[in-house]
Write the structure tokens for this entry.
Amino acid sequence: MDWDRLKTFYHVATAGSISRAMDTIHLSQSAITRQIQSLEHSLKTKLFKRHTKGITLTEQGTYLFEETEKIFADLNSIEKKIIEFKSIPSGNLSINTTVGFGSMWLSPRINEFIEEYPEINLKLNYSEDEQDMLRQDYDIGIWMRRPKHLDLVSKHIATIKYHIYGSAHYINEMGMPIRRSELSKHRLITYGTGKPSPLSDTNWILKTGLNKNSKPRKPHITINNLYGLLVAVETGAGIAALPDYMVQHKAHLVKVLPEIEGPSYEVHMVYHENLKGSLKIIAFRDFLMSKIKQWRF
């Protein structure tokens, strides 16, 4: 099987169209078409279904694409390991985690890592989407759950707990709840619809302290982003359940009913098994663990 044709097929399948693949592989549309047709001829099967809106993979094309993805992942891993045949960790290191954890916990500490490892170039991606680690778009994921795929290495690095918080200004204005039932008298801010939360019971604040047959409380505000929840609480909009790591050094926020501990979830550092032994991965893992030991979650 011709490698150039296979590479062209891979980029077309990844891009979803020949025109979009042209920007990646820098070939003309006619040249790409000829290579795809030649590959189909050599395999004696159609790899794409062509229709008015573009192209889609056939069953055989899907199988070839999945196998080709594995080849590219292995090649990327080999390239990274060859580059790393030095005693000092160096090169590019890409990390994906959630907006809340990345913005509120990782970013304030990342300068220490850069100072310790100046030859590592970091790419940080904060989003509520857990990126596809199997395609190795990112080297490391800091996920709020344990990965399910066996090809991913996972290290449990922390357990995050939730409590209820309000601003000092809000508490002075509205009073401090003494019993759980008094939460019904307060402005409650909860997690709205959006990306899946690691918590099985996201809005437990609406039910805590109520009888089983009672209707849940109604939130005054719903926000589909943890950072947005934090800002709303800081500005006195109401009280909300927040992860402790977001609040610990914010003296103007007060823990409400501190004896109530909400659900907790595990945080995992995730990377592809091909990156085992990578100096960059080891360096970041050790740095991450040293900082987590200094921090109360």
